[in-house]
Write a structure and sequence with these properties.
By secondary structure, the protein is mainly β. Helices cover 0% and strands 49% of the residues.
Length: 123
């Protein structure tokens, strides 16, 4: 089982990035997916999650209205569109596969984790 996150980079404040996460099919189409992030010296924190069929999404208050999670089960991929980026969004972003059809905000809800992709937002 592998999750591969990509799309990170350096962007100026106010800019946009789109992260992608590819997953092996056996654990993708029936599982909720989530994105977390970890800034230097801080705990890994919840960003957003999407249900197995894309019908339900949840966002952390800090990204609500700026970030959008989506998924394409035919491509075994989940995406994170990040607009209006702020310096405080700088972190390593991780995708994760939930234990069931729906994920939540707790790290313990997720069974598989990708390797992370760095997002740096300059002021």
């Amino acid at each position: 089982v592998q999750l591969q996150a990509s799309g990170g980079g350096l962007v100026q404040a106010g800019g946009s990035l789109r992260l992608s996460c590819s997953a092996s099919g056996r654990i993708f189409s029936n599982n909720g997916m989530g994105w977390f992030r970890q800034a230097p010296g801080k705990e890994r924190e919840f960003v957003t999650t999407i249900s197995w069929n894309g019908g339900s999404t949840v966002y952390a208050d800090s990204v609500k209205g700026r970030f959008t999670i989506s998924r394409d089960n035919a491509k075994n991929a989940v995406y994170l569109q990040m607009d209006g980026l702020k310096p405080e969004d700088t972190a390593v972003y991780y995708c994760a596969a939930a234990r069931g059809a729906y994920g939540a905000a707790a790290r313990s809800d997720y069974r598989y984790w990708g390797q992370g992709t760095q997002v740096t937002v300059s002021s």
